[in-house]
Amino acid sequence: MNQNFAFLNSFIEISEETFLELDKITTFKRVESGTQIVKLGEVPSKVYMLISGTIRCYLSTESGKEFNKSFYLPTSFVASLTALINSKPSLFVFETLSDCKMFEIDYKKLKELCKKDQSINDLYSRVLEVVYIKYERRLVELISLDAKERYLELRKKIPNVDEIIPQYHIASYLGITAVQLSRIRKKIESY
């Protein structure tokens, strides 16, 4: 079974015909490290299915300070969802942290397919539910866990996080400084 077909079926069972319909609105891309696939203030028109590499999503302040909101690893969907749905400029930047392979999906064409094909609409709805659940979990972590606990949760989700994501990006994601993260890591390693 095609691994992309299997990934989509992990959300909801779809037929091979449905997969082929989705494939028609999809373009395979290789993207170099450091590329902004969604820029700040850009009105996005694409959804990405990441199949290799790492992407970060961050917010940039007027002073240039960056706050990492999320990291994306294979296989996952990547999009500035609120901006896409509302056809508004993105408040976030999506940047590749490594060379990536991904499928680019035209959002308007996807929405048109949702109107014509109930199974694609069901898949779209299920993906949105999964994205929302992840977002809600992240919010609960930020509110209820201290920095060490947030770091340990991140390591559970991404066991090799320290090898694939630079320390300053991890620290930003956790809402702490790189020095604080270094101290937390030393305490954990000393146990």
TrEMBL record:
Return the InterPro entries for the record: cNMP-bd_dom, cNMP-bd_dom_sf, RmlC-like_jellyroll
The Cyclic nucleotide-binding domain extends over 10-113
Going by the entry's taxonomy, the superkingdom of the source organism is recorded as Bacteria
- Pfam families from the entry? cNMP_binding (PF00027)
Q: What is this protein called?
A: Crp/Fnr family transcriptional regulator
Native source organism of the sequence: Seonamhaeicola maritimus
